[in-house]
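Illustration: SGNH/GDSL hydrolase family protein.
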Amino acid sequence: MPYRRFALLVMVVALVFAGAGVASAAGPRFQEYVALGDSWSADVNILNVTTKYVPFGCVQSARDYPHQVAAALGVPTFRDATCGGAITDNMAGPQSAPLGGTNTPQFDRLTTKTDLVTIGIGGNDVGLVGMVEGCISLLPSLTPVPGATLPSPLGASCQPKFVVGGVDKISQAIAQAAAKIANVIAGVRARSPHAKIEVVNYMNPFPTAGCYPYIQFANEDIPWLRAKVNEMDAMLARVAASKHVGLLNTNTGMTGHDLCQLPTRQYVTAVLPLSSDPLIAVPFHPTQLGANHQAATIVAALGG
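Result:
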């Protein structure tokens, strides 16, 4: 091989390896990650509570999805502001944590250097947990006389509590929460103008059909409950799109992990607080499997 061509080949190979060295030395994609949200972002179970970023009363888990995402992405600076019971008002204002203590405004963790923010909020503004609690029926299949059902919470459908005069109160609350979510996004932008903002939706744990008595809901209520969570997620997607931020869809991969599955497959706990780890979990909240699923979905979407 002529010397000139050989020298050119050596230069090309050197450039390739130099480029690889530059890429590997670039470090993590994100330098400062802040997680904002409620218990569906903070909670896994009550035996993994951490007080590193919030008071104990927030019941924030050291194995929630924000912690896992930060570790998987190798983010140097991470702050998890998520707290059980949080509403959109607690982004800019303090919160009295459910089990005691005060969580300072979640926005306080944001800085001008923050370059990744996840937002998992809105469920408590809408009252999703209250909706579920109001639909618990201990004996929904029993009828004292033909054509009659036991009164709630023993047997009646829960829908008349929430759909009055043809008006669905949950749908109303979801529509009203849209402006609040938009304001949260605007608040993040104002404080962290260079951040990649991602809205995290709610895993829908309801199957297409009920499985009483394995879960304590009237079978006829299950499709309505499923529709309400889908409606909530659709609102979050619309707001995220209108504000030109990302939407992380944690419903991807939920098939076979709904409330009717065994605890070892559930991504969300049912009425009985049995978790898949099998530590004690908060009812109707992500199990450890669910938090792992949330984390894996988010990391994959972020290219981690």
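Reading the tokens back as a structure: The two ends are 43 Å apart (CA to CA).
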